[in-house]
Amino acid sequence: MEYSNLAPAYKEEYIEKLFPLLRIPSVFEASDQFPYGKSIDEALHYMLSLGKDDGFLCSNIEGHAGHIEFGAGEEVIGILGHLDVVPPRDGWSTEPFQPVIEGDCLYARGAQDDKGPVMAAYLAMKLLKDQGFVPKKRVRLILGTDEERDWKGIEHYFKKEEMPVFGFTPDAVFPVIHAEKGLIDSYINFDVPDVTSSNALLSFSSGERLNMVPDAAEARLKVNDIEELFQAFLNLHQLKGNIQKQENTFLLTLYGKTAHGSKPEKGVNAALHLLKFLKEIQLHPDHAAIVNHIIECLSDPAGSGLNCNFQDEVSGNLTCNMGIVDWKSGEKCRVGVNVRYPVTIDSELIVQSLKRFSKKAHGTMEIYDHLKALHIKKEHPHIQALLEIYNRHAEDTAIPHSIGGATYARALETGVAYGALFKDSPDTAHQANEHIQLKDMIKAIAIYAEAIQHLSR
To answer: Residue 84 catalytic?
Structure first.
């Protein structure tokens, strides 16, 4: 089949079926009725209804995940995507959950991560089905629901369903991702002395997710007049913010720029910058000691402050993102840290570095989540096949590479991330004005269709 000739005919169907999915605000919310909230459950039901209407076999695994399947055979080929999204935050030029097409770009939260690529994979399956192709293995589009948080949905799925012999996730970039850094999410807790005199940091709040660079931070201070100092700091560092005087306290707000936690250098960490301002105004020594320690250890996104700025030839540099800071005077300071370490580095070295960081300021460290590194040799036959398919369609000579992101490929015994972004595609995951290029998704449909045919022969 000439996939590159067949795929463009699915452009209108792609838009028609993707728009309703993008309108669902599938951000996690606590619920007694649904595992991950009503909106995520709605997104799962929408995709499964699409599959059923198009003649696929569909299964809902107790609201935790689901799959859309065709083909027959003993073995399963898996395509793993997710339907949940991160919160939209501020800074959008359009409504995040009202998809808009401008030129060749489609804007919406989830357009790139990961609803748009999931729909491309789905239509690749439909293209093959429409052409009468019958896989000799069962091909399953597995729909996750909790990828942006704890992966509990996909964990539950594989407790109930069989493991594919091989699979890929359309949740990264082409050509083929054969290595993903290890990921450690941790929280550091410090006791904060109750300071009633002047120069006290009463509260500090920034960030919602460990895997996002926080784009806003807020601090309440009991200090003398600092309005001119704060404005001078903002001007010097070309930042935006505001300050309000409320009786005998000041409320400071500073704005940064969000980015994916695997690429903290692409964002502007609002929490870090506001803490750096607080260092300049000579806080009470009991509060300043904690603030200074956080700055000293967590300023460098390469991890030098933690003495763990490791790197390797396979996956590059370690990255460190301070995603959450929550401070209450007289109670606790909670700092959330996301570390992604090279695939050849022993994870225990990272754990010990985080423990030393907490111990130095008399704090405690807890590991919230740990995803081990993924590393499959470039010579694996399926990797080479996927690479050849991509290079031919993209007229490229690329080789497999690594990423700092954590994809569902780690949930497989053998699997990789495979697209759906190309090397010249805008990377807007987790950012305001998230978008995809429609031409990229049409090309991805062709690539995925041929990849599915090859893997399921």
So the answer is: yes
398 pLDDT higher than 90 = yes
Is the CB of residue 317 less than 8 Å from the CB of residue 342? yes
How far, in Å, CA of 230 to CA of 132, rounded?
A: 66
> Catalytic: 286?
no
DSSP H or E segment with residue 143: strand 138-144
Alpha helices (H) in 79-131, listed in sequence order: 115-130
Asked if residues 74 and 398 have their Cβ atoms less than 8 Å apart, the reply is no
Q: What is the pLDDT of residues 361-375, one digit of tens each?
A: 889 999 999 989 999
| pLDDT of res. 209 | 87
Angle at Cα 148 formed by Cα 144 and Cα 150, nearest 5°? 85
For 207-234, what is each residue's pLDDT tens digit?
988 989 999 999 999 988 899 999 999 9
Q: Could you say which of 41, 113, 146, 147 is catalytic?
A: 147
Contacts of 133 (CB under 8 A, 6+ apart): 1, 453
Give the number of other Cβ atoms within 10 Å of residue 330's Cβ. Answer: 12
Nearest to 255, CA basis, from 232, 231, 271, 235: 271
Hey, is 367 helix, strand or coil?
Answer: strand
In the numeric block, the tokens 């399947």 are attached to 69
C-alpha to C-alpha distance for 411 and 80, rounded to whole angstroms:
9
pTM for this model (two decimals): 0.82
SS3 content of the chain, % helix, strand, coil (to 5): 35, 30, 40
Give burial (CB, 10 Å; 0-12/13-18/19+) of 275. Answer: buried
- Residue 279, Cβ density class (10 Å: 0-12 exposed, 13-18 middle, ≥19 buried): middle
38-79 tens-digit pLDDT: 999 999 999 999 999 999 999 999 999 999 999 999 999 999
The residue count of the chain comes to 457
Count the neighbouring beta carbons within 10 Å of the beta carbon of residue 409. 26
Name the catalytic one among 84, 180, 185, 215.
84
